[in-house]
Amino acid sequence: MTARGRSIPTLSLLVAAAALVLPVTASGARATARAAACIPSGSEAGINAALTGSGATAALCPGAVFTLTNPVTFTAPNQVIETQGLPTDGTRATLKVGGSLTTAINGNGQPGITVENIQIDGGRPALGRLDGGALMEMGAAGTGQTVQNVYAHDTRSWSTLHFIEGAVTNSTPACQGAKILNNTIGPAGTATPSGTWADGISLACGTSTVEGNTVQDATDGGIVIFGAPGSSVRNNTIVAKTQTLLGGINLVDYAPMNGNYTGTTVTGNTINAQSAFIKVGIAMGPQVWGCGTGTNYGASVTGNTLQGAHMGYGYAVNGVRDWTVTGNADNSTHVGTPNAGCGGTVSAPGRFQVQASTSSTLQPEFTSAQLTYVLGVAEHPPNGAVISLRSHANGRYVTADGTTPLIAAGTAIGTGQQFDEIDQGGGAIALRAHTNNQYVTAENGGAAPLAANRGAIGQWETFALIHNGDGSVSLRANANDQYVTAENAGAAPLIANRTAIGPWEEFDLIQD
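^ that's the sequence the OP posted. Answer follows.
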């Protein structure tokens, strides 16, 4: 007897046999027998016992909870793990990682297997982080595997769902034809301390489909594509709500496909820096992510949308060839202070930026930028960080000499161009000049030029830090709610007397 075309679990054969002899008219008795056939709460043992033979189905009882000390492991082709009745809500059965385990489900290289309509709790908040396999390890020699309608969160290790490549021959993985559909993934990892990040979805399986998934509060990559040639990553949503995310969708890894992204398409996805920082919306090319060599080739990134008020770099390209980036939208606000990259400070965050691409088609919004290792970007410099301000009015640095008002006159950064940024909460800051350790004030309630001559912070010494769409910042004086301007194109001292932001009111914030 089969259910949905699949073998009934071995553990349930007696119950199934009983159901076969019931009269056809005894629908109530039949329903009771079918319900009893599901696997009740327990450990992995009951599930693994049901996974015997090709096509076996382990049907878990709705609401059941399984505490695992070893992975649930597929043992033959076309096996299935699911919640009976395929619910999509909180009644889906739950697998909970326990002990020193990091992997809840092991696909074990079996073709045609399916994981659907269950929940998986990695337990990181209670159990802590561990090095080890992803919460779900799928793929390898297994082709045509499916993960759908799964809610998986709090992996203890580096990734939530990993489709591993298996053997790579001529830059092509053994794993092919994965389907990752309509799952909810995250949280994954922790943003601090560094090195405890985790991916939502990690894809190295070729000709695969990743569609309709929601990844929330991952910390390394929302969706990371390791080449996966011929794959389609489409119509997914990646949201940062409570944790910094390094990259929304990453096409940066040269290994294990030797840069082969041929036929990989990324389209129709939405990446939302809703209430937490995303350092890069869509990162393309190895050098965006690091200081190594290598060139990725062959991908197409089209029709995606960035949004949210906490986006660092938008579409960042460095180290690709035969690449297409067209028809994408950027409705986000770009923020962040760049830090040292590889060989110097990288460019400020912006919408469409490229450093190195060959034989590629990029949409016309792209501008040239320095993008070799951009992950040092921070949404806000830490409290007390040393910063400098370079005026867009004349390209010079704001200078405090300790006796005269501030003016954008410096051609290089020295003591006179350095300030401590002191967080005042609510997006407000104070600036303490290194020249004399005095706070910058909007003198006379903003009616006079800015000067560094106060020994304490009050209303006149606080400024709202405004992040502009081009990656620059502006300062709005709390003394009078007017924007600070480099008056007369920078030839006159800074003063807070503008009601709108233009080039004279824009500054590059550089963390020293």
